[in-house]
Q: What sequence folds into this?
């Protein structure tokens, strides 16, 4: 079944890698995805401040059922990524991570592998905060054959989403 997906990633470092993942999924499966904004629009949004960015994030997550975190070298350190994860968790989205460091950027370079902890987040009414890797599956785009498996990963994340 088609799922509407929010892609979370470090824009400056990984937008080129994110486009490769998103485009391969959309082209291959003819599915729609959310969570992308072009560079000019993003720069304009940043000028409006933190509240505008957070409102944009919340608006993008509406109507999605799965959040895919594209993990690059510095993704773990980004406050907006953590905010996107918290809002996705609160909404009840299925969540998964995909390492994208082995994909080339626009200049043909790969990157170092990022961390998948994202700090202690994801509180529920029944338990303590936990790290990303304690709750969600994480895959490597290249070695786990993301091109052929992303649809399956998204469906698994949806089926394992937190019950509310």
A:
């Amino acid at each position: 079944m088609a799922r509407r997906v929010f892609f979370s990633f470090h824009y400056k470092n990984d937008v080129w890698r994110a486009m490769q993942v998103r485009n391969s999924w959309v082209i291959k499966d003819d599915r729609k995805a959310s969570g992308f904004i072009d560079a000019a629009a993003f720069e304009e949004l940043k000028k409006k401040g933190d509240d505008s960015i957070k409102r944009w994030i919340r608006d993008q997550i509406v109507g999605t059922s799965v959040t895919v975190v594209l993990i690059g070298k510095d993704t773990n350190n980004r406050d907006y990524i953590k905010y996107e994860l918290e809002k996705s968790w609160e909404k009840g989205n299925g969540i998964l991570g995909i390492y994208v460091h082995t994909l080339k950027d626009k200049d043909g370079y790969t990157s170092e592998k990022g961390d998948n902890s994202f700090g202690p987040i994801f509180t529920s009414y029944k338990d303590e905060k936990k790290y990303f890797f304690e709750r969600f599956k994480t895959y490597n785009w290249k070695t786990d054959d993301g091109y052929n498996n992303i649809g399956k990963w998204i469906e698994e994340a949806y089926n394992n989403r937190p019950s509310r």
Summary: The longest strand covers residues 66-71. The mean pLDDT is 85.
